């Protein structure tokens, strides 16, 4: 038989004996009817009021053990009423009144049961007692072990904590009845984790059991805590949980350099703000406790270097602040200190939280390019400087110990039009082309200095072109001046100003006047306003478009340069028809209203037509008189024949009107015509007579052709004149 079954039977025997004793003593008999009857009799109830039957139920307190595992139903108790005389006339709804547990009960699931009972007459089946309720209480046994509902636990405690520092509190619960026995009384103990930690048996508080535990030695511990009921006595049930304790860091370790001396080598061409070296002081702490600052305590070359902290790695970063020069200084010695930022005063006794080391930086020589004496050379040249004029000199030297020879040249990307040259040996810059300040006032030249080892240095020559007075002033804009026909004398019709591309140091000063040919103009006058402007005024009124639609005034503008320059600008004044407010309605010449041609134009056209008709008649007549020779000797050169006609020579116009080359090649033309005639004759022999296109006919054909061409030019000129008049 199992241990649990044995405990259950033992408890059952104790309870049965205890119930029999109490039954004999009658201490638990209950007669609720008698008490009620007594109260009613004392109250003096009326006799005719029906008397209530008193209750005669008699039962003991019922208990049943949980977790009963027997094969037979477990006897719990017996119901009884004093109405029952034992003659078998009373029947109980629970059979004989005996109560048995028919299944296994669990107090943690249900602690008690409420049952209902009634006594009835067996014969009449009428109730002899009112229905009543009674309670069966399930009695607890130790069948539940303690449980850590919040486990497993994670906790932390600072390293180097004193003895007894609280880490965390654990708690276990027991489902057994805490009011009965020791089944739910739990005590705690530590199974694994000694001698570093301890636990209080009653409260479950875990504390440090050793002082000054070092995180850098061991940073995590896993504890096993046990909770046991029955006050830890033998036979009690137990449960366990794990507690992971992490030692958190404190700043108890100072920084320490792994080496007392560091050496680094850099080239002298290293750019400024470059990293020279990186080093780190070791700190066993972590997080903010390991943060540190570096500084240069002392060393040669002050201001040459700077040191900062890399916040990610806590490295010391040595930076270059000034350019290195091997020829000036080839090595530097520095003393560096590293100090913790967040120092805990509780651990100052562990020593100073800083450390120092020595750093030596060696500079290596490199082939440096030539260096200009002045990185920027400013030069000035007058605008009218002659080609070859020297304007300045650049100078560079080799910073290396070799001191190589230097040759100079101009970066032509900065002098695309090649205005300047530089002497390769001396570095003298001179003009190569005439300069124009108005086109380019400043030339930014890059000068190359090349030494024998092909390293190139670069300098800048800024050449400023000085202005000279080489531009005459002109009108500021193209003025459109309108003059109303009803303008009165002395009225300002236009204000003019001037511009000058030159830029004198004292600014521009212009003077205005009318040019000499019309200085005594009767229509207009000019007034110089002495502020680089002038006003045009009328001297009379009564202007008429029909008389003169446009007036042109030559205005003389003079600057104040040395020597002074001037220019004559023409101001066009158009006469306009204006309304009452002086707004121009129409300007310029009045158009002719007649749409017909003039008599001269008609005569010219008629003359051209007559000329063409005469030419046609001459050709017809020649065709009829082709046997009459026009030229005596057919085979002679046409250039030996003199043709006379009553027409005046036109000089260059004749040359343009006639193609002299064609006249010199008449033979070729006539031969070609005869060949063409022969080919046509072969096609149709009866179409052309045999003597068609003779040499004389050819000559007259060409002559009239060029005459017609000249008349054509006349016609074109005539049409142009007609269009102009229209």
From TrEMBL:
The protein's organism comes out as: Neogobius melanostomus (round goby)
One Gene Ontology cellular component term attached to this UniProt record is: catenin complex
Q: Which UniProt keywords apply?
A: Calcium, Membrane, Repeat, Signal, Transmembrane, Transmembrane helix
Q: Which SUPFAM superfamilies match?
A: Cadherin-like
Q: Give me the ranges of the annotated region Disordered.
A: 29-50
- Per the UniProt entry, what are the Gene Ontology biological process annotations, in alphabetical order? adherens junction organization; calcium-dependent cell-cell adhesion via plasma membrane cell adhesion molecules; cell migration; cell morphogenesis; cell-cell adhesion mediated by cadherin; cell-cell junction assembly; homophilic cell adhesion via plasma membrane adhesion molecules
Query: Which chain regions cross the lipid bilayer?
Result: 600-620
Which Gene3D superfamilies does UniProt cross-reference here?
Answer: Cadherins (2.60.40.60)
- Tell me which positions the record assigns to the signal sequence: 1-25
Q: Where does the Cadherin domain lie?
A: 95-148, 149-257, 258-372, 373-475, 475-592
What is the protein named? Cadherin 7
Q: Name one GO molecular function term.
A: calcium ion binding
Matching SMART domains, A to Z?
CA (SM00112)
What compartments host this protein?
Membrane
């Amino acid at each position: 038989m199992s241990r649990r079954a044995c405990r259950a039977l033992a408890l059952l025997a104790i309870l049965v004996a205890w119930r029999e004793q109490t039954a004999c003593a009658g201490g638990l008999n209950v007669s609720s009817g008698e008490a009620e009857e007594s109260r009613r009799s004392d109250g003096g109830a009326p006799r005719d009021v029906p008397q209530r039957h008193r209750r005669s139920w008699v039962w003991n307190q019922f208990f049943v053990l949980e977790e009963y595992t027997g094969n037979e139903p477990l006897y719990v108790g017996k119901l009884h009423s004093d109405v029952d005389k034992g003659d078998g006339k009373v029947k109980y709804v629970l059979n004989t009144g005996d109560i048995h547990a028919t299944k296994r009960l669990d107090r943690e699931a249900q602690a008690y049961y409420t049952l209902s009972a009634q006594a009835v007459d067996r014969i009449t089946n009428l109730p002899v007692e009112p229905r009543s309720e009674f309670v069966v209480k399930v009695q607890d046994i130790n069948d539940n072990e303690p449980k850590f509902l919040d486990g497993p636990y994670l906790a932390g405690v600072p390293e180097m904590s004193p003895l007894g520092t609280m880490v965390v509190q654990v708690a276990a619960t027991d489902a057994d009845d805490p009011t009965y026995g020791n089944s739910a009384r739990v005590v705690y103990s530590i199974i694994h984790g000694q001698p570093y930690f301890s636990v209080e048996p009653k409260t479950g508080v875990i504390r440090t059991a050793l002082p000054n535990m070092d995180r850098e030695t061991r940073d995590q511990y896993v504890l096993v805590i046990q909770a046991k009921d029955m006050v830890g006595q033998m036979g009690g049930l137990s449960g366990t949980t794990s507690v992971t304790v992490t030692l958190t860091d404190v700043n108890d370790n100072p920084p320490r350099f792994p080496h007392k001396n560091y050496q680094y080598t850099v080239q002298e061409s290293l750019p400024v703000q470059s990293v020279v070296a990186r080093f780190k002081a070791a700190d066993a702490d972590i997080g903010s406790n390991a943060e540190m600052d570096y500084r240069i305590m002392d060393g040669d070359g002050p201001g040459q270097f700077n040191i900062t902290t890399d916040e990610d790695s806590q490295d010391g970063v040595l930076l270059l602040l000034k350019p290195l020069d091997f020829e000036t200084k080839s090595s530097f010695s520095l003393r560096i200190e590293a100090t913790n930022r967040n120092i805990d005063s509780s651990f100052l006794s562990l020593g100073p939280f800083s450390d120092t080391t020595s750093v030596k930086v060696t500079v290596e020589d490199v082939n440096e390019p030539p260096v200009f004496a002045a990185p920027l050379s400013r030069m000035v040249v007058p605008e009218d400087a002659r080609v070859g004029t020297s304007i300045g000199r650049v100078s560079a030297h080799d910073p290396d110990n070799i001191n190589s020879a230097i040759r100079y040249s101009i970066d032509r990307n900065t002098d695309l039009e090649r205005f300047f040259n530089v002497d390769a040996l001396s570095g003298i810059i001179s003009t190569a082309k005439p300069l124009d300040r108005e086109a380019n006032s400043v030339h930014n030249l890059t000068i190359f200095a090349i030494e024998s080892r092909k390293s190139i240095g670069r300098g800048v020559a800024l050449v400023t072109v000085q202005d000279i007075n080489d531009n005459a002033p002109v009108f500021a804009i193209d003025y459109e001046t309108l003059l109303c026909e009803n303008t009165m004398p002395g009225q300002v019709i236009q204000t003019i100003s001037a511009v000058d591309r030159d830029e004198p140091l004292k600014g521009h000063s212009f003077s205005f006047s009318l040019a000499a040919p019309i200085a005594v103009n009767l229509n207009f006058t000019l007034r110089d306003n002495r502020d680089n402007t002038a006003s045009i005024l009328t001297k009379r009124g009564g202007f008429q478009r029909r008389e003169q639609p446009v007036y042109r005034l030559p205005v003389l503008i003079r600057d104040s340069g040395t020597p002074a320059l001037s220019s004559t600008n023409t101001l066009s004044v158009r006469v306009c028809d204006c309304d009452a407010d002086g707004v121009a309605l129409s300007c310029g010449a009045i158009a002719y209203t007649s749409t017909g041609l003039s008599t001269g134009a008609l005569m010219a056209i008629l003359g051209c037509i007559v000329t063409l008709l005469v030419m046609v008649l001459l050709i017809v007549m020649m065709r009829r008189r082709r046997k009459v020779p026009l030229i005596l000797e057919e085979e002679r050169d046409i250039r030996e024949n003199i043709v006379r006609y009553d027409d005046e020579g036109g000089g260059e116009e004749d040359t343009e009107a006639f193609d002299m080359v064609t006249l010199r090649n008449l033979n070729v033309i006539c031969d070609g015509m005869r060949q063409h005639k022969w080919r046509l004759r072969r096609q149709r022999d009866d179409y052309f007579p045999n003597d068609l296109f003779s040499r004389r006919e050819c000559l007259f054909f060409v002559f009239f052709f060029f005459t017609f061409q000249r008349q054509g030019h006349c016609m074109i000129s005539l049409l142009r004149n007609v269009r102009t008049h229209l």
